[in-house]
Amino acid sequence: MKKTFNFSPNFSKKNRPKSFIKFVIIHYTGMQSEIASVNRLKNKKSKVSCHYLISRKGKVIQMVPENKIAWHAGKSKWRSYKNLNRNSIGIELVNKGHVYGYESFSKAQIQSLVVLCKELIKKYNISASNFLGHSDIAPLRKLDPGEKFPWKKLSKYKIGVWYKNKDYKVKDLKKEELRNLFFKNTHIIGYRYFQILKRSNQDSKVIRVFQQRYLPKKVNGKIDKKTLEISAFLANKLA
User: Fold this and answer.
1) What are the start-end ranges of the E strands in the chain?
2) Which member of 29, 122, 206, 223 has the lowest number of beta carbons within 10 Å of its beta carbon?
3) Rounded distance, CA 227 to CA 140, Å?
4) Which residues, at least 6 apart from 107, have a Cβ–Cβ distance to it below 8 Å?
5) How far is CA 123 from CA 8, 18, 63, 111, 118, in A?
6) What is the β-pairing status of strands 131-133 and 23-28?
7) Which residues are known catalytic residues?
8) Is beta strand 23-28 parallel, antiparallel or unpaired with respect to 88-93?
9) Residue 137 and residue 154: Cα distance in Å, rounded?
């Protein structure tokens, strides 16, 4: 695919082996304009970057070579991986985000993202379950790409996983049992930053992030039967 180049200085200078690259992390820029986003990603003081940025019009800009570690994920966990910069490609989509006026992602953006991700799948043999949002790997501090990102649509291209529309039935449970089973399931899926059997006031952030991705029309940070059923389906699929 056609790419333009606008390189950022914000990356680790040592080359990484191709075999290190296991994940693709999707972000939104969360700034008021594309220009402001590019400027921040190139500013040495910001200490943030990405491998690719995709504009609202679908233009793909490469900012860091793939064999270098871009600084996009920050403090993060997924399954047994920590600080996922080392093992991932970071893709930023221009979007004002939840602070400045969250927008639907443009058709051109998603089309370019699909083409780019297909290239990365072929090049690095990345599995569908290893396409993640920034919020998946850092649920206590990040919301991007958010509830308007079309994970269901992208799953048809093996970019991220989805669940089947039929209910994955679970029996009625007491409130504490509901919570513990949900977090057991999400731990199997790959989420971290919680304790399965110990309630925390941060739990709702993890629940919201899960709902943003898999139940985007009902993001309330509360575990209902549907949220639990989706977690159970995915845990069974990914175990």
Assistant:
1) 4-5, 11-12, 23-28, 52-54, 60-62, 69-70, 77-78, 81-82, 88-93, 131-133
2) 122
3) 19
4) none
5) 23, 9, 18, 19, 9
6) parallel
7) 92
8) parallel
9) 19
Domain of 120: which CATH number?
A: 3.40.80.10
| Percent of the chain whose predicted confidence (pLDDT) is above 90 | 92
The 3-state DSSP composition of the chain as helix, strand, coil percent (nearest 5) reads: 40, 15, 50
Rounded CA-CA distance 229/168 in Å is 5
Domain contains 127: yes
pLDDT score recorded for residue 173: 74
pLDDT at residue 118 in the model: 98
The CA-based dihedral angle spanning residues 155, 157, 160, 165, taken in that order and rounded to the nearest 10 degrees: 20
Q: What are phi and psi of 61, to 5 degrees?
A: -115, 120
Q: How confident is the model at residue 167 (pLDDT cuts 50, 70, 90)?
A: low
Q: Which of 209, 177, 215, 176 has its CA nearest to residue 192?
A: 209
Q: Is the pTM of this model over 0.90?
A: yes
Instruction: For Cα atoms 142, 143, 147, give the angle at the middle one, nearest 5 degrees.
Output: 165
> Per the structure, how many domains does the chain have?
2
Whether 22 is in a domain gets the answer yes
Residue-range definition of the domain harbouring residue 226: 175-238
